[in-house]
Amino acid sequence: MAPSSTAQPPPHFPANVQYLTTPVPSRLLPATHRQTFCTPCPPHLLPNPPPRIAIRTISDPRHPANGQSGLFNASNKALPRGTWIRDYVGWVHTEGEADPTSGYDLALDRIVTDVVDPETSETSQHVEVVGCDATRMGGEARFVNDYRGVPGFERPNAVFELRSWDVPGQPGKKGVRMAVWAGPHGIDKGSEICVSYGKGYWRPQEPATTPADAGKGATSTKKPAKSKKG
Ligand SMILES: C[S@@+](CC[C@H](N)C(=O)[O-])C[C@H]1O[C@@H](n2cnc3c(N)ncnc32)[C@H](O)[C@@H]1O
User: Fold this and answer.
1) Which residue's CA is minimally distant from atom 26 of ligand 1?
2) Is ipTM beyond 0.95?
3) Which of 8, 41, 103, 180 is most exposed by smallest CB count within 10 Å?
4) Nearest C-alpha to atom 12 of ligand 1 is from which residue?
């Protein structure tokens, strides 16, 4: 599989981060996950045309991520609820490869398999998390901040949710991405786009409570969000 896209990075994308439009699999990622999470999505199968967004440096001392970047609605109108904004692309990896210090890692899937003990014949469950880390490579969605403490926000205006599509020419095969979508009240023109990372992101020692959890240690404890068909 080609390691990345050749697309030009958008304005203000950091030079030390590889710009992607398609996720890049770890060499240890099983072939089935590679197929599901890293297969390119033909542009005509996107849920809607990509809305105009902008990466901007935050220069508001009241903003908890002041001095960092955020993602903004740069289209000339509000984005209605359910608008697909961008996929969360990055390096797709196994649980064992997760970096617990990463602030850009989220869980794509939890694969539960039954393991039978050959001696006792007892069955236990093995859970393997597939993660997507956008620390060193990613797209615009890596700039989505958490709404907590952001001036003017009482709740997130966007959500993380999986989307899936039928892979052309491969009956029964689905491509899957985590994506950022406009939340139930839409996203105002010019507004920053903020999700909830989930309480587990900020208090990683506690079990995750929301499916959109992203970040430090996320891949060892977090559940993926429910899926939307694109
Ligand atoms: C996925 S990145 C978001 C983009 C990041 N602001 C940047 O410029 O690359 C997650 C990091 O952004 C910062 N961040 C996001 N939302 C925040 C919030 N509500 N309060 C404090 N820091 C936040 C934290 O440093 C966090 O580890």
Assistant:
1) 103
2) yes
3) 8
4) 145
CA-to-CA distance for 33 and 45, rounded, in angstroms? 20
Closest residue by CA, ligand 1 atom 8: 69
Q: Whose CA is nearest to atom 7 of ligand 1?
A: 69
Ligand 1 atom showing the smallest separation from residue 142 Cα: 1
The predicted-structure confidence for 76-100, as pLDDT tens digits, reads as follows 999 999 999 999 999 999 999 999 9
Rounded to the nearest angstrom, the distance between the alpha carbon of 116 and the centre of ligand 1 is: 42
- Set out the domains of the chain in order of their start, with CATH numbers: 20-229 (2.170.270.10)
Angle, CA 84 vertex, CA 208 and CA 69 arms, to 5°: 65
Nearest atom in ligand 1 to the alpha carbon of residue 149 is 19
As beta bridge partners, residue 213 has none
Burial 77-92 (b: 16+ CB within 10 A, else e): ebbeeebbbbbbbbbb
Around ligand 1, the residues with Cβ closer than 6 Å are: 64-65, 68-70, 103-104, 142-143, 145-146, 148-150
- What is the per-residue pLDDT across 102-123, written as a single tens digit (0 to 9) for each? 999 999 999 888 999 999 999 9
Tens of pLDDT, residue by residue over 10-66, are 999 999 999 999 999 999 999 999 999 999 999 999 999 999 999 999 999 999 999
